[in-house]
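Example 143.
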Amino acid sequence: MRWLILGTLLATACGGDKDTDSATAGTTAGTTPVIDTGPPPRDLTNLDVQPIVDANCGPCHMGGNVTSGLALDDIRGAIGLQSGQLPGLFMIRCEFPEQSYLLKKVKGDDDIFGQKMPSGGALTDDEIEMLEVWIAEGCTDAD
Ligand code: HEC
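Predicted structure in complex with heme C:
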């Protein structure tokens, strides 16, 4: 449902210039209870999101620093890795951002243990969204 709302907002926001876009936005916002709408795939890969990790998580989770059992030198290493803090969840569960503990930690969800990540800082909304989209779309691998 969130994606549908986001898609509607985007369509509305971008719909000013062209008549066709406005018409589409009107349709979407109006009657149709569609499930499969939303923003088009962003086609993000691990190489798009790795720089976010490199810039924000390095001192504690890279280069031999494995704080809390988590090394992020390659973010793909967090896929299917069980969280130590919440063993019922994986750090990243592809296609299920709401069940990915790493994402919950950077968002500062109510049910996390410890601090919001990165400790001592915060990701921007755009950075969080990129991680979320990459996970939601199945953790596309550039290789
Ligand atoms: C300054 C050090 C520091 C930085 C930078 C940092 N972390 Fe952490 N991280 C920690 C510490 C300490 C813990 C354990 C205590 C806690 O969770 O509050 C932790 C725990 C975690 C956990 C939980 C691990 C588990 O076992 O469930 C995740 C996920 C995590 N960090 C992700 C990140 C991500 C993603 C970034 C970058 C966006 C990041 N951290 C940046 C210090 C850091």
